[in-house]
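Researcher: I need the complex structure. Ligand is glycinamide ribonucleotide. Inputs:
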Amino acid sequence: MRLAVLASGYGSNLQAILDAISRKEVAGQVRVVISDVENAFALQRARENGIEALYINPRDYKDREAFDEVVSGQLMERKIDLVILAGYMRFLSPPFVRKFRGRIMNIHPSLLPAFPGLNGVKKALSHGVKVSGCTVHFVDEGLDTGPIILQEAVPVLDGDTEDTLHERIHGLEHRLYPQAIQLFIEKKLRLEGRRCIRFEG
Ligand code: GAR
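Model: Output:
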């Protein structure tokens, strides 16, 4: 299975996926890492792991659709089976979503549908929730609205800051994302309307 990771930042989820692949817990290969941020550490991680790293500058394109078309062209050229968003801070245009429907996953640092969009951890903390977590979901045309694949909770502690809570959530993410990817690879996920059902194939 040919995987692509799209990332805008630090890339700890990318690293967790690469580690899971090297432990043979994920039966796929990351063929390319694409970023919209030139100095994203995720690109460096890719290079260090011998994976093609592509920076595509959004400013070179007239709008979101034009940028996404270039990204999707790169993915199609490499015959990518699954597109993995890992800290990719761009909203995908509808044509991109249509092209890869059912084959785009995202991870989000809250219990969706609560606190979608940017700064999910900060929003949860300032709302005062006692439990938060992370969500792996398929991507549809909405903002973090696609069918939920896996979700897990963590407690929010009285002394938490955005950093301490995000660190606890990152711990979950690094375990959950590889699991969700492997379920997809093993074709153990089936959609029934909005519900993503996990079954033994
Ligand atoms: C992760 O916590 C991910 O859930 C979040 O960005 C972080 C990226 O960390 N994504 C979003 O907020 C998407 N809306 P990483 O670069 O270390 O993998």
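Model: Summary of the prediction. The two ends are 17 Å apart (CA to CA).
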